[in-house]
Amino acid sequence: MTTDGAVQDRAAEVMRDVFDVRGRRALVTGAASGLGFAFAEVLAGCGAHVTLADVDEELLESSTSALADRGLRVRSEVVDVRDADAVQRAVDGVVEAEGGLDVVFANAGIGSVPGYAFEGGQTLDTIRAEDFGRVIDVNLHGMLHTIGSAAGVMKRQGSGRIVVTSSIAGVQPEPFVCYGYISSKAAIINIVRHAALELAPYGITVNAIAPGPVKGTRIGAGATLDPTPEAEAAWARMIPLGRMGIPSELKGVALLLGSPASSFLTGQTLVVDGGATLAGPGVQGR
C-alpha cells in the first residue's frame, strides 16, 4: 500500500518535472508592480533567475530588493521599452549576467486615459493623437522591441518561451479603457500568432495572457491600482464570478507558460477573466 508520504513525494516530483523553471533565465518587463511583479515573483520563487525590468527606477529597486531579501535570485534593469536600443541593452545584460535567456515576459503596458464608461473618459471625438500614440509606443512598439530582441537570442539557442500580456480588451469591446489600449491589445494577439509560426522551427513558443479587470495594476490611468468602491462595483458587474481579480491569480498561468508544461502550446491567448468574456462587455454605453 502506498503511504501518504510516498504519494506526496511523488506528487512533488511530478510538479517539479512538469513545472520546473529552476535555473531558467527570465526577463520580465513592467516588473516593478502589478502583474509584472507577480510574474517575476512566481518564477523566482520556483527557482528561475529573474531580471526585473521597468522604467520606474525607484519602484524597481524596491521590488527587486523585496525578492532578493527572500533569498531569490533576481537582478534589475532600468529600461523604457519604447527605446529599442535600451531594450536590446537590457537583453544583452541578461545574457552577459546569466549566459542566455530562456523566458521573456513582454508585460510592460499603460492605459493613458480612462475609457468612455467613466465620466469624462475618452470618446471617439475626444481622442488626442499624443494619448493614442503614447499607448501604442509602450504597449505595441515596446512589446515588439522586447520580443524581437529576445527572439534573436533564443533563435541562436534553439529554444525559448515568449509570453506577452494582452487583455480581454483585445478580444471584445471594453468601455473602461481608451482606444489606444484596445487597439494595441488586439494587435498583440495577432502578432503572437504570427510570431509563433515564425519561431516554431527554432523551438520557441509564443503565447499571450489576456487578463480581465485586475486590481493592483496601473492600467486605466491608475484606475485599477486602488479602485473606488463605485468603480470596483462597476467592474464586478461585468464578471460572472462577481469580483475583480488580483495579480496573484495570474501566477499559475505565468508559471505554465514559462515552464516545460507548455512545451506543445504556442500561438495561443489564454484568457483569465473570471468569465467576463462569457458575459460580454459590461457597459454598452451611457
Question: What does this entry look like structurally?
Answer:
With 286 residues, the protein is an alpha/beta fold. It has a single domain (21-270), classed as NAD(P)-binding Rossmann-like Domain (Rossmann fold), CATH 3.40.50. 44% of the residues lie in helices and 13% in strands. It is built from 9 helices and 7 strands. The chain has a 7-stranded parallel sheet, with helices on both faces. Helix 2 (34-45) crosses helix 8 (251-258) and helix 5 packs parallel to helix 6 (179-199). The longest helix has 29 residues, at 129-157. The chain is globular, with a radius of gyration of 19 Å.
Low-confidence stretches: none
- CATH topology type: Rossmann fold
Please describe the biggest sheet, giving its number of strands, its sense, and whether it closes into a barrel.
Answer: 7 strands, parallel
Mean pLDDT score: 91
Class in CATH? Alpha Beta
Tally of alpha and pi helices: 9
Lateral strand order in the biggest sheet: 3-2-1-4-5-6-7
Radius of gyration: 19 Å
Counted up, domains total 1
Helix/strand/pairing class, anyone? alpha/beta
Please state roughly what percent of the residues sit in beta strands, choosing from under 5%, 5-15%, 15-25%, 25-35%, 35-45% or over 45%.
5-15%
Q: Could you give me the name of the CATH homologous superfamily?
A: NAD(P)-binding Rossmann-like Domain
What is the oligomeric state here?
single chain
Please give the share of residues in helix.
Answer: 40-55%
What string gives the helices and strands in order?
HEHEHEHEHEHEHHEH
Give the end-to-end Cα distance, rounded to a whole number of Å.
Answer: 64 Å
